[in-house]
Amino acid sequence: MSVFNAVSVVIDAALLVSWGVMLALYLRRGTPQTARGPEREALETAIDELSQANAKAEAAIAVKNRFLESASYQLRTPLNTILGLSEMVASGFCGPCDNAKVGEYLNDIHASGLELLTVIDKLSAVATVEATANAARHSYRTIFEMSPDGMCLCRDGVVTFINSAGVRLLGGYDASQFEGKAFADFIHGADRSWAENNFATLIGEAHSTPMQLAHPGGKALDVVLTAAAVPDGDDIVLVVIRNISDVTRANRDVAAQVKRLNSILDTAVDAIVVCDERGLIETFNRSAEVMFGYTAADAIGRNVTILMTERDAFDHHRNIGRYAHTHESQVIGVGREVSAQRKDGSGFPAEISLSVCYLDDRRLFTAMIRDVTERRTFENHLAYSANHDALTSLPNRNLLAATLQQDVDRAAASGAWVAVWFVDLDGFKTINDVMGHAAGDELLIEAGRRMLASIKPADTVARFGGDEFALIITDVRSQADVIAAMETFLSAVTQPFLLRGQEVALTANVGISLYPGDTVTASDLVVNAGAAMIVAKAAGRNLYRFFDPSMHHESSERLTLENELRRGIERDELMLHYQPQVDIASGAIVGLEALVRWNHPNMGMVSPNRFIPVAEQTGLIVPLGEWVLHQACKDLRRLEDMGIDGVSVAVNISPRQFSDSDVLGLIHHVIAETGVDPGRLDVEITEGTLMNDPEHVIAYLEQLKGQGIRLSIDDFGTGYSSLNYLKRFPVDTLKIDRSFVVDIADNAKDEAIALTIITLAHSMGMTVLAEGVEFAAQGDLLGRLGCDVIQGFLYSRPLPFEQIVAILRGGIRLPILASTEALQSSLATGSPNI
User: Fold this and answer.
1) Nearby residues of 406 by Cβ (< 8 Å), 6 or more positions away
2) In 757-772, which positions are buried (b, 16+ CB within 10 angstroms) versus exposed (e)?
3) Per-residue confidence at 468, pLDDT binned at 50, 70, 90?
4) 345 vs 321: which has the higher pLDDT
5) CA distances (Å), 19 to each of 40, 44, 50, 54, in order?
6) What pLDDT, on the 0 to 100 scale, is given for residue 61?
């Protein structure tokens, strides 16, 4: 039986009761008092009791109905909001819901809401029935008016009745505004199709249908409609209209907020993953998709351990379990680094920050994850750079010290020896000067590779700096082991290198220090090996020396010599000696080479062989060279003032002066200061200096030549001169290096080299000077080969300025050392030919 049938039955019963009561009252009013009999009195008594009971029932029903009406209205509005929101979320209005648990929870909410609404509807129906029975004079309209929802009756799509709630809902003030009009006129836009065929489609819907009604204010009103055919109602359709504007607006606000939140999540650089207490993923943002290779649909609902390595997954379960029991965690709120895992199984370092939040009775964990691969790579690069040489990629001093300490500790435990080799490459500087720094770098790299190939895998090769390397040789049992390894090493390193199409050779000097024989500290092993290397280098080329405690004395002396030389330059302890340069044809002195000497107040005359290398290595050669140039020009000016003509003064310019100072400015300043004739100043530059950046040097030489200064190439034949550049150098003299002169009388190859240089120089209009000539046989042969000028002990050792002046004033023709005894006496003084 439908609700409407039940209502009809109740109304009929109520009418019968009412009619009975009214009839009884009528009989009472219409019967005389005197005519009453016992039966009538009994009837009247019953009617009175019935009337009283009816009045009490009507009062009680009225109170109850007011309560039910109020409760129905107050409960229905929020309940409708909840039902509408759950239906919209379930329908996907707010976006897809991929979480099964959330969907299940929504279904439970909706079902419970429907049950509660059914109860309210039943209560409302009872109240309506009772209200109808209480006042039979009111029609079904009274029932409709009690509803807070809009209700109307339609026949053939035309409104025949609309309740007050419907009038208010549609923005009207009286039912007459709507009754008699097509209901479709009040539907917005395309939703009008629902009203076709007297709401046939809408009647077939199992649930309320959302649509929009046209409001007089011009805005669309969000509602849900339910339609039902009235039984035996001559095609009358009951339409119930429920306003869901607040629900829709709330849903839109929620959707907008969710959209903003999702936008924030998707624009976040870090991956954001939210999971529940079981570890099931509920949120997976765009950055997480990119980082891990899963789509959100793939990841949501799965356990968060899919993003971890097996080891970290185990640690995660342990930490979360501890937190669940104690609420104390070492990971919540603390950033830490973990090993993450992508969908393809590849791992990467990640930094994770974990937080916990509570949603109703649920506990959720939010992880912010950052891929730190680039940062880790950069940190590793920094760590590598801090411990490795940038050029050769070999360990540097830092890593050498750490590795050596570890090897010493292991040797102390095992009883083995550790050897430290300090290696200095001889010949590298010349190659670097001649072929350029880039070629020098290539040579160092290849030399490092050869060193690595010549030792055991457990041993270490480190670049100490420049052309110096340090090696750690482990598991040594005797000195014989060290010597055998050293022979192999030197043989490998000294093999010719093929560098840019040219074969170049290096030699090595090595110092060796042993643990525990020489020292028990790692740092002292390196110091001792360095001291031994210096001794080996002083002894010759391609040599090695084991450390001896006396070597520290030599190193100390070297340091002392450096400090004293610096003070000697400041205290004017230096002097110049001059070695004559003699014309072979006439025996006349045509030039003087200025050679520096050092007269120390305590050490006496210090050999140039001792202090010149120190000056070159420490940079003191620059101020030393400046002093020599100043003094040589002063002495040249004195010669000019004495009227001594036809003699030039040669001054050596070191490679260090070319690279570290303004040589052109210095020479120009000294010439201007002393007023000497530039044509009598001969600037000597080594062949290696010329070939280091030749284009730059040519520009320098042309400026010097523009001032009228004479130019000479010193030590010619020892470098790698290019004939193409040689013809462009504005040079006046080539000086044959003494290494080709020493054995020239007995060595056909040296003779051929000298002849080639002489021929080449003459063909280019240059003068040839041979230095280091000590014996007559050498001088005679050079004369026959066409050499122009000779310099050496055969004629004179370097002499103080006053003695040179005496020779020049006397017009002496050299050789002045006429006898063999005199020559031997000169050599016995120990003065070198420099």
Assistant:
1) none
2) bbebbeeeebbbbbbb
3) very high
4) 345
5) 18, 15, 13, 13
6) 66
